[in-house]
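Comment thread on ticket #2218

A.B. wrote:
> Attaching the input chain for the structure job we discussed in standup.
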Amino acid sequence: MKAEKFSESEQTELKSSTGELKEALISISAILNRHRQGKLYFGITDTGKVIGQDISKNTIREISRTICAKIEPKIYPEIEELLVENKKCIQVSFCGFDVLYSADGRYYIRVGDEDRKLSTAEVTKIILDTRLKNLRWDSQPYPDTSITDISSAKIKAFLKIAGLNMHTIANTLENLNLTDRGILTNTALLLFAKQPEKFFQNAMLRCAVFAGETTSYIADRQEFTGDIFFLIKKAEEYIIKNIYIGMRIEGLRREDVPEIDQEAIREVVVNAFCHRDYFDPDSITILVFKDRVEVRNPGGLTGGLTIQDIRTKKVSKRRNELICNIFHRAHYVEKFGRGISFVLEREPNAQFEQVGDIFISTLFRKESVKHGDRLVNGLVNGLVNGLVNGLSYNQQKILELMQINPKITTRMIASKTKISLTTVDNNIKKLKEHGYLRRIGNQKSGYWEILNR
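C.D. wrote:
> Ran it. Output below, let me know if you need it in another format.
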C-alpha cells in the first residue's frame, strides 16, 4: 500500500497508535451512526503519514476487547495486521445496523472527517425517526447488497418515464431516497434489482382463470416473478387477455373496448402493489371468474381506516410511502389518494372488502349472460344470444374453453370436458364447417379464433 492512499473521510479514521484507542472508540461510534460501516487504522497519522505501530501478541486482542466493552450496542469488528511501506499497521473494519451506537455512554455523529457529540434532543429525535422508519418495510435497508445488484437498464427506463436525469446509479438512488446511509433499501431492490426474487420471495404474481363463478374448475394458471413494474404490466396483460374485448367505431377506425374499463383495471392493480403488506411473504393474486375479476393483496387497510371510509370519505393511508412516491414520479399514481374514487367513476359496481388480512378488489364483467342453469360466456364481442341456441352442449363447452385459452389443445379439451378425443375432433370440425370457428397457425404454435357469424 502507498501512503498517499490514506486520508480521513466520513467512513475512514486514522490514528497514530493504540494510545489513541479512547478517541478511536468515539470515531467508530460516530461513523456507525452516520454510515453504519467504516474502517479505522492504527499506525497512520491524520495527515496520512505511515509511522507504524508496535504490535505485540496482545495488541489486537486488547483492541477487540475494548471495542466490545465500550461500544453499545455491541459490535464485533474484523481486526488485522497490515504491512504498509514495510511498517506494521492495524486495520479495524466494523459495521452495525442498530439505531444508535454510544462510545462509553456518549453519542456522536460523523460530519466530514470529524466526530460531533449529539445533544439529548438530537439523540431522542434520531431514535424516534428510526423507529418510525423501521415500521415501514419499504424504507428499511437491506444489508450485504451493493450497486452491482441494481439494473442500470431499469434505472434508465424509469428516469426516462419520470423525466429525470441520471449521473451515476448510486447518485440517482440517493436522490430518490432509495438508500439509507449508502445501503440499498428494500424498495430499491424491489423496483430496480436485476433479480428482485433473489431477495424477496413475494416479488411474485399469481394468476388464474376459472371456468365458473367458483374456484372449483381451473382453466389456466400462471406465475410471474420480477420487479413490481414488470409484475404490474403482467397483471394487466393477463386480465385483458382473459376478458372479452368489444369494439367501437371512431370515424373509420376500430377501437377495442374491454368489458371492464382498462384504466380501472390498471388502478386496482397498481393500488394492490402500492398498499400491500410486504412483511407478509404471500403474493398478489389475480383471479378471473366468469362473472368477475378479483385482485387480492396481502395486508388489510392501515391507519384504522374502514371500507366505508375509503368509499365515501375519499381518504387513504399509505402503508408504503416510498413505493408510492416512486410510482408517483413514474405517473402511476396521484399523490392525493383518489384511487378508489377513480375506479368507482369508471366501474360504479366495483366492490372492495377485507377478509382477514387480505384486501380484495372486485371488478364485475359485463359480457356474461344466463343460459338455462349455466353461465355461458359472451364469447367474442358480446356474441352468445343467437349463437348458443344453435349449438350442442359439447360445442358450447368447447367454445368456452377456447375463449378462456385460445391455445388450448384438443387433448386438454377432452380432459376438461370428459368426452373422447374423437368426439372433440368431430365437434371442432362441425364448428369450423358452420363458420363458428377457425384455426390460426399450425398445431404447435397456433390458436383458435371464435367467429361472429
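A.B. wrote:
> Thanks. Noting for the ticket: Residues 394 and 427 are 8 Å apart (CA to CA).
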